[in-house]
Fold:
Amino acid sequence: MRILIVEDERQIALDLQTALGEAGYVMDLAYDGETAWYLGDTEDYDAVLLDLGLPKLDGMTVLKRWRAAGRTMPVIALTARDSWRDKVDGIDAGADDYLAKPFQMEELLARVRSIIRRGSGNTSAVLTIDTVMLDTKQQDATVDGRAVGLTQLEFRALSYLMHHKSCVVSQGELTEHVYGQDFPHDSNAVEVLIARLRKKVGTTFIRTKRGQGYIVGGE
Amino acid sequence: MTSKSLRLRLLTAAAIAIAMALTLSGIVLSRLFSQHVEAREIAELRNHQNQITAALEISTDSVVQLNTLPADPRFAKPNGGLYWQIDLPDGTKYRSRSLWETELTLPVDDILDGVSHQHLIKGPNNQTLLAVERSLTVGPEIKPIQLRLTVAVDRKDLDTAVTDFRQVLMASLGILGLALILASLAQIQVGLRPLARLRVALQSVHSGDAERVTGEYVSEVQPLINDMNALLDRERQNNVRARERAADLAHGFKTPLAVLSAVARELQRDEQSKNDKLKHAAEINTQIDLMGRHVRSELARARTVGASTIRRTPVPLKPLIEKIVAALARISADRNLRWIIDVAPDTSFIGDENDVLELIGNLADNASKWAKAKVILRAHHDSKLLRIEIEDDGPGIPAGTEDEVLMRGRRLDETTDGTGLGLSIVAKIVAAYAGTITLIRKPAGGLIVALQFPR
Structure:
C-alpha cells in the first residue's frame, strides 16, 4: 500500500513516516503544496495524508485540483483547525476524512486502514480470500488457520493484491506500491518476491496472467 | 453637506430656510405695496378727473371752458408732477399750467364713451407719467362734443415711495432674519445639551470613573443610552469571563506541566529499562492529550459567538444539516448508516451560523459513532422555541444516568472520544444561547439529545 504524506512540519512528517512504515506502508513525502500536487497528479497512491496549511500552494487548493483532474484516491485532511466549518469545507473540497492536530498515532493508523478498506469495498481490518486471512492491523497472515510469518515486503505485496481482489495487478504497479521510491534495480525482484509468497500461502493462490500481471481471488 | 458637525448642519439648514422664507415674503410684500400705491394713485387721478369733469362748462357755441381750476397746487406749478389735458376733436388742447410749453402725447386708440383707462406715457421732461384717460361727450344734444380728458402724475413719486418702502422692508426683514437665526442657534444649543452631557458621561466611562452612562436623558436619546449601557455591561461580563477563562486554561496546564517535569527528571536518572521508557512515553502522551483537550475546548469556546443582542440573523437549518450529514456520511461511508433528516424548510436558528454548525456537527458526530444503523436529525421551531433533536439507535445510556452523563460531558478529563470533548463544547454553546440540553433514553436502546432554544 502506497501512501503520500504531505506535511511541511518535518518532525511530524518524520513521525508519520516512521509510524506508517512500521505499519507496513510504502510512502512518498512532500513538504510543500506544489510537490504534493505534482506527485498526486502523476503517481498512483492508495491514500493521501494531506496537511491543509502548506507553503506555496495550500492543501485545500491542491485537493480541489486533484479532484478537478479526476484523481479519486482517498484523502485524509490533517489540520490544526478543527471547527466544523473547516471540516465541512474540507470534505466539500473532496477530502474523505478529517483529522485534527494534535492526533493520536493509533487514531491516524485506524483512519488510514479504514479509508483504504473503504476504497476496496471491505469493511473489516481482516481480509479473507479462500483460506488466506490477512490481518492488516497486525500485519500477519494465516493459511487454514495456521500462522505464516511475513516480511514487510511480503506483507505489502499480499495486502495490495488482496485489496485488489479479482483485479489483474501488473508487475510495474506492484513494484510501485511495494517498493515506493526505492525501486529495486533488479528487474526480477517482484518475481522473486511473488515466488517467496507462493511458498507461504500456496502456489495457486496468486495466479499469473501471462504478459499482464498477477491476480488473487475471482473465478 | 460635507460638514460633520451636527450643530453646523442644523444651523445651515435653519439659515437656508429662514433666508428663503424672508426673501419670499419680501418679494410678496413689496409687490403688494407697489400694487396698492398704484391703485391709490389711480383712484386719486380719477378723483381729479371727476373734479375737472364737474368744472367743465360748454357754451352754446360749443366753446369748452373750465369754470374752476382743480385745487391741487401741483397743477399750477410748471413741471409740478401732476398734469391735466383736454383734447378736443378739432385738435384744440386745454392744458394745466404745469405742462407749460409741452403737451401730453397720447397713444392713438379708440375709447368708448365714459370709459377711462391707464397709460404709461412720456412727460414734459421725458419722465414717465402714469396717465388716466377718459372719453367724454358733452354739450347740447344736437351738437355734442367728444373730448378726451387726461390726468397724469409723475411716476417718480410712486417709485420713490416703493423704493423707500423696500429699503425699510429689507432692513426689517434682515433684522428679523438675524433674530430668527440667533433663536435657532439658541434652540440648537439647548437641544444638543444632552449630547454634550453624554460626552462628559462617556468620558468618565472611558477614564474608568464610571461603569455605565448615568443620568436621565431626553426620550429621543434615552434608548441609545440604554443600548449603550447594555453593550457596556455585556462587554464587562465578557471581559470578566475572558479573564476567568485565561486563568482556567493556565491552571489546566499547571498539573500536566508539573507531571511532565517530573517525568523529565525521572528520565534523567540512571539507566532506564525499555519498560520504564515506554511507561514514561505513555505518561507524556497522556499529559499532552490532556493539554490538547484544554486547548481545543478553549478554541471552541473562543469561536462561539453566542446570543448577541445586536446581531440576530436567522440561519436556515435545513441546508446546514444537509451539509453536516453529507460530510459525516462520507467520513463514515464504510458503516452504511442511514441518515434521516426531518427538518421543515423554514426552520431557522437565531444566532451565528458557525455556532450552530459546531453544535449539530458535534452531536451528529457522536450519534454516528454510537449508532448501529441509523441517525435521525429533527429540527422544528414555533414562535417561542427552537427544538433540535439528534437520535441514534446505539446502546444508549443506563437509566437514571442522564444528568451524570451531561455533567461528565462538561469535564475535560473524560477520555472516551465522542462523549467527552464534543459534549463539553456543545454544553458551552448551548449555555451561550440560554438554551437547554436534555438526554432522552429510548426504551429499545438508543439516545435522543434534545436541544431547546428560546426565540
